[in-house]
Design a protein that fits this description.
ARM-type_fold; HEAT repeat domain-containing protein; two-stranded antiparallel ribbon; 4 strands; globular; HEAT_type_2; single chain; 217 residues; ARM-like; 54% helix
Protein backbone atom coordinates (compact mmCIF):
# COMPACT_ATOMS: atom_id res chain seq x y z
CA UNK A 1 0.00 0.00 0.00
CA UNK A 2 1.24 3.46 -0.89
CA UNK A 3 1.40 6.48 1.39
CA UNK A 4 1.19 10.18 0.67
CA UNK A 5 -1.21 11.98 -1.64
CA UNK A 6 -1.03 9.22 -4.25
CA UNK A 7 -2.60 6.82 -1.76
CA UNK A 8 -5.69 9.03 -1.32
CA UNK A 9 -6.14 10.25 -4.89
CA UNK A 10 -9.67 8.80 -5.05
CA UNK A 11 -10.77 9.98 -1.61
CA UNK A 12 -13.76 12.34 -1.46
CA UNK A 13 -12.83 14.35 1.62
CA UNK A 14 -16.22 16.08 1.63
CA UNK A 15 -17.82 12.74 2.56
CA UNK A 16 -15.51 12.22 5.54
CA UNK A 17 -15.69 13.88 8.92
CA UNK A 18 -13.59 14.66 11.97
CA UNK A 19 -14.49 15.65 15.51
CA UNK A 20 -15.80 19.08 14.53
CA UNK A 21 -17.48 18.62 11.17
CA UNK A 22 -17.11 17.41 7.62
CA UNK A 23 -13.48 17.05 6.58
CA UNK A 24 -13.36 19.31 3.53
CA UNK A 25 -10.85 21.48 5.44
CA UNK A 26 -8.45 18.63 6.23
CA UNK A 27 -6.59 18.51 2.86
CA UNK A 28 -5.75 22.21 3.21
CA UNK A 29 -4.29 21.62 6.64
CA UNK A 30 -2.29 18.65 5.39
CA UNK A 31 -0.77 20.74 2.60
CA UNK A 32 0.03 23.51 5.08
CA UNK A 33 2.23 21.10 7.04
CA UNK A 34 4.96 21.53 4.41
CA UNK A 35 4.03 25.04 3.32
CA UNK A 36 5.86 28.28 4.00
CA UNK A 37 3.30 29.84 6.35
CA UNK A 38 4.51 29.19 9.89
CA UNK A 39 1.17 30.03 11.50
CA UNK A 40 -0.63 27.72 9.08
CA UNK A 41 1.78 24.89 9.94
CA UNK A 42 1.00 25.31 13.61
CA UNK A 43 -2.73 25.37 12.91
CA UNK A 44 -2.36 22.24 10.78
CA UNK A 45 -0.66 20.36 13.61
CA UNK A 46 -3.41 21.49 15.98
CA UNK A 47 -5.97 20.22 13.47
CA UNK A 48 -4.37 16.77 13.45
CA UNK A 49 -4.35 16.48 17.22
CA UNK A 50 -7.71 18.09 18.01
CA UNK A 51 -9.91 17.17 15.05
CA UNK A 52 -8.45 14.24 13.10
CA UNK A 53 -7.66 12.45 16.38
CA UNK A 54 -9.75 13.81 19.22
CA UNK A 55 -8.92 12.51 22.68
CA UNK A 56 -7.83 9.21 21.17
CA UNK A 57 -10.94 8.76 19.04
CA UNK A 58 -10.55 8.15 15.28
CA UNK A 59 -13.06 9.40 12.73
CA UNK A 60 -13.64 8.56 9.09
CA UNK A 61 -11.01 11.09 8.00
CA UNK A 62 -8.32 9.62 10.25
CA UNK A 63 -7.08 6.77 8.00
CA UNK A 64 -6.56 8.82 4.81
CA UNK A 65 -5.04 11.68 6.80
CA UNK A 66 -2.61 9.21 8.41
CA UNK A 67 -1.56 7.94 4.97
CA UNK A 68 -0.81 11.50 3.85
CA UNK A 69 1.15 12.26 7.02
CA UNK A 70 3.19 9.08 6.61
CA UNK A 71 4.03 10.13 3.07
CA UNK A 72 5.17 13.57 4.25
CA UNK A 73 7.71 12.24 6.75
CA UNK A 74 10.68 12.10 4.31
CA UNK A 75 10.06 15.67 3.13
CA UNK A 76 13.04 17.81 4.29
CA UNK A 77 10.62 20.54 5.32
CA UNK A 78 9.35 18.34 8.16
CA UNK A 79 12.74 18.81 9.85
CA UNK A 80 11.77 22.43 10.60
CA UNK A 81 10.73 23.30 14.15
CA UNK A 82 7.09 24.13 14.63
CA UNK A 83 5.08 25.78 17.37
CA UNK A 84 1.67 24.24 17.95
CA UNK A 85 -0.54 24.45 20.99
CA UNK A 86 1.47 24.15 24.19
CA UNK A 87 4.23 22.01 22.66
CA UNK A 88 7.93 22.88 22.81
CA UNK A 89 9.01 25.38 20.20
CA UNK A 90 12.15 23.49 19.21
CA UNK A 91 10.34 20.23 18.37
CA UNK A 92 10.83 19.21 14.73
CA UNK A 93 7.62 18.89 12.79
CA UNK A 94 8.64 15.34 11.83
CA UNK A 95 8.67 14.32 15.51
CA UNK A 96 5.18 15.77 16.00
CA UNK A 97 3.90 13.93 12.92
CA UNK A 98 5.35 10.68 14.25
CA UNK A 99 3.62 11.41 17.55
CA UNK A 100 0.37 11.78 15.63
CA UNK A 101 0.96 8.38 14.02
CA UNK A 102 1.49 6.93 17.49
CA UNK A 103 -1.95 8.23 18.46
CA UNK A 104 -3.35 6.78 15.26
CA UNK A 105 -1.90 3.36 16.05
CA UNK A 106 -3.23 3.43 19.61
CA UNK A 107 -6.65 4.42 18.26
CA UNK A 108 -6.70 1.16 16.29
CA UNK A 109 -7.55 -0.59 19.58
CA UNK A 110 -5.28 -3.64 19.27
CA UNK A 111 -7.03 -5.38 22.17
CA UNK A 112 -10.47 -5.39 20.53
CA UNK A 113 -11.31 -8.51 18.47
CA UNK A 114 -11.83 -8.03 14.75
CA UNK A 115 -15.27 -9.66 14.78
CA UNK A 116 -16.46 -7.26 17.47
CA UNK A 117 -15.41 -4.28 15.37
CA UNK A 118 -17.05 -5.64 12.23
CA UNK A 119 -20.31 -6.23 14.10
CA UNK A 120 -20.26 -2.64 15.34
CA UNK A 121 -19.35 -1.24 11.92
CA UNK A 122 -22.20 -3.14 10.25
CA UNK A 123 -25.04 -3.50 12.76
CA UNK A 124 -27.31 -6.39 11.90
CA UNK A 125 -30.57 -5.43 10.22
CA UNK A 126 -29.64 -1.79 9.85
CA UNK A 127 -28.19 -0.10 6.77
CA UNK A 128 -26.31 3.04 7.82
CA UNK A 129 -25.17 5.83 5.53
CA UNK A 130 -22.81 7.24 8.12
CA UNK A 131 -21.44 9.98 5.87
CA UNK A 132 -24.92 11.30 5.03
CA UNK A 133 -26.04 11.17 8.66
CA UNK A 134 -22.90 13.01 9.77
CA UNK A 135 -23.34 15.71 7.14
CA UNK A 136 -26.95 16.25 8.18
CA UNK A 137 -26.09 16.34 11.87
CA UNK A 138 -23.33 18.92 11.47
CA UNK A 139 -25.53 21.05 9.21
CA UNK A 140 -28.29 21.09 11.80
CA UNK A 141 -25.87 21.91 14.60
CA UNK A 142 -24.56 24.88 12.63
CA UNK A 143 -28.05 26.02 11.70
CA UNK A 144 -27.32 25.63 7.98
CA UNK A 145 -30.24 23.33 7.23
CA UNK A 146 -33.93 23.52 7.95
CA UNK A 147 -35.94 20.54 9.11
CA UNK A 148 -39.35 21.91 8.26
CA UNK A 149 -40.97 18.50 8.19
CA UNK A 150 -39.71 17.68 11.65
CA UNK A 151 -38.68 14.21 10.51
CA UNK A 152 -35.05 14.34 11.53
CA UNK A 153 -33.65 14.87 14.99
CA UNK A 154 -29.88 14.78 15.37
CA UNK A 155 -30.03 13.38 18.88
CA UNK A 156 -32.18 10.48 17.71
CA UNK A 157 -30.79 9.80 14.23
CA UNK A 158 -27.15 10.25 15.21
CA UNK A 159 -27.47 7.78 18.04
CA UNK A 160 -24.92 5.73 19.89
CA UNK A 161 -25.09 2.89 17.37
CA UNK A 162 -24.29 5.21 14.46
CA UNK A 163 -21.36 6.75 16.32
CA UNK A 164 -20.04 3.30 17.21
CA UNK A 165 -20.37 2.22 13.57
CA UNK A 166 -18.38 5.23 12.38
CA UNK A 167 -15.61 4.70 14.92
CA UNK A 168 -15.47 0.93 14.38
CA UNK A 169 -15.17 1.46 10.63
CA UNK A 170 -12.34 3.92 11.19
CA UNK A 171 -10.56 1.46 13.48
CA UNK A 172 -10.79 -1.30 10.88
CA UNK A 173 -9.41 1.04 8.24
CA UNK A 174 -6.52 2.01 10.51
CA UNK A 175 -5.65 -1.64 11.00
CA UNK A 176 -5.67 -2.13 7.23
CA UNK A 177 -3.18 0.69 6.61
CA UNK A 178 -0.92 -0.12 9.58
CA UNK A 179 1.67 -2.08 7.48
CA UNK A 180 2.14 0.94 5.21
CA UNK A 181 2.60 3.17 8.25
CA UNK A 182 5.20 0.78 9.66
CA UNK A 183 7.35 1.11 6.55
CA UNK A 184 7.24 4.91 6.69
CA UNK A 185 7.98 5.07 10.42
CA UNK A 186 10.84 2.56 10.27
CA UNK A 187 12.78 4.83 7.95
CA UNK A 188 13.16 7.35 10.79
CA UNK A 189 14.29 5.07 13.62
CA UNK A 190 17.88 6.20 13.00
CA UNK A 191 17.12 9.85 12.29
CA UNK A 192 19.90 12.17 13.39
CA UNK A 193 17.52 14.20 15.57
CA UNK A 194 16.93 12.56 18.98
CA UNK A 195 13.34 13.84 19.18
CA UNK A 196 12.53 12.19 15.88
CA UNK A 197 14.21 8.91 16.86
CA UNK A 198 12.26 8.83 20.12
CA UNK A 199 8.95 9.58 18.39
CA UNK A 200 9.67 6.99 15.70
CA UNK A 201 10.38 4.29 18.27
CA UNK A 202 7.13 5.08 20.08
CA UNK A 203 5.16 4.97 16.85
CA UNK A 204 6.80 1.68 15.85
CA UNK A 205 5.97 0.11 19.21
CA UNK A 206 2.33 1.16 18.90
CA UNK A 207 2.08 -0.07 15.31
CA UNK A 208 3.66 -3.39 16.21
CA UNK A 209 0.77 -3.99 18.59
CA UNK A 210 -1.49 -4.01 15.53
CA UNK A 211 0.67 -5.73 12.94
CA UNK A 212 2.34 -8.45 15.06
CA UNK A 213 0.89 -11.92 14.38
CA UNK A 214 -1.59 -13.15 16.97
CA UNK A 215 0.13 -15.01 19.78
CA UNK A 216 3.57 -13.53 19.10
CA UNK A 217 5.48 -12.24 22.16
Amino acid sequence: MRTGWAAVAEVDWSKLFHAYGMASDTPGHLRALVGDDEAARGAAVDHLWSAVIHQGTPWTVTPPAALVVAGLLPDPRTARPVTAGDGPEDMPLRALLLGFLTEVAEAAQPGVPEEELRAAAHPQGRELDVAALAERMFALEEGDEDDEDGDWDSAEDWDEEVAEAAIAGAVLALRAIAPALVESVAAHLDDRDPHVRHSASQAMAALTEITAPAGSP
